[in-house]
Design goal:
By secondary structure, the chain is α/β, with parallel strands linked by helices. It has helices at 19-32, 46-56, 76-90, 111-123, 137-147, 166-174, 194-203, 207-217, 229-236, 245-252; strands at 12-13, 36-38, 64-69, 95-100, 127-133, 154-158, 178-182, 221-222. It has a domain at 12-185 and 220-226: NADP-dependent oxidoreductase domain (TIM Barrel), CATH 3.20.20. The chain is built from 10 helices and 8 strands.
Length: 271
Amino acid sequence: MVYSSPIPQLGLGTFGRTGDAGIAAILKALEIGYRHIDTAQSYDTEGPVGEAVRRSGLPRAEVFVTTKVADTNLDKSRFMPSVEKSLETLGFDQVDLLLIHWPSEKDAVPFEDYMLALKEAQERGFTRFIGVSNFPIAHLERTRALLGEGAIATNQVEIHPYLQAPKLRDYARDHGLVLTAYQPLVKGAVVSDPVLAEIAERHGVTPAAVALAFLMAEGHAVIPASSSEANLRANMRAKDVRLSEEEMNAIRALDRGDRRINPEKSPRWDD
């Protein structure tokens, strides 16, 4: 599928990239060529992301930065102060993309309250684009009814070769909504997959690069996380991999609905 989004398709996840080691890993990614960095209030990586961007010497406008409002900050009294705190921690006047990290469990915070607050954050200039994370179709439908078609730039969800979320994927395609795949490498589990390994050998890349290339060919953005320079470079090569339809179908056949991130607060998933 042709990718059409302001979000750079290949980005860097920063969960676990804290402190000086985190700054070094993010800085190395920027040196290699990553231009999309994903953080969140709950990761404790907003500070390292901001510092790495400053140390990189790159113009702020060249690095697309995403952060997320934690589900503990969704109520009216906490939402906007938490966004202002995120900007302060990052050292930015504005982020490129602001997401709701998780919908409020059992609507403990009214859906309209935090979604309208998200829109207000955009109107105030705190973020260029808005989006959501971990939203099933029902929540996306509520979002569309409240904010209108095309209001959100992405839905960031767990997607990888073993969890391809066909119902959510097809819904997103029908509505021109990009899905951003977190944990796209299943914490490295893809490296030992024989199907991916065989395709990788054919293309002269790693199985991880093949997994990322597959997800991007499906029209998704991807945010793999790594602190290893070798892995950062290997993952970047996914941008140049062109898979045949036969190879795509072989990877599609790996889908087994294997969800790894499923805390108690999760909504009712579609796939």
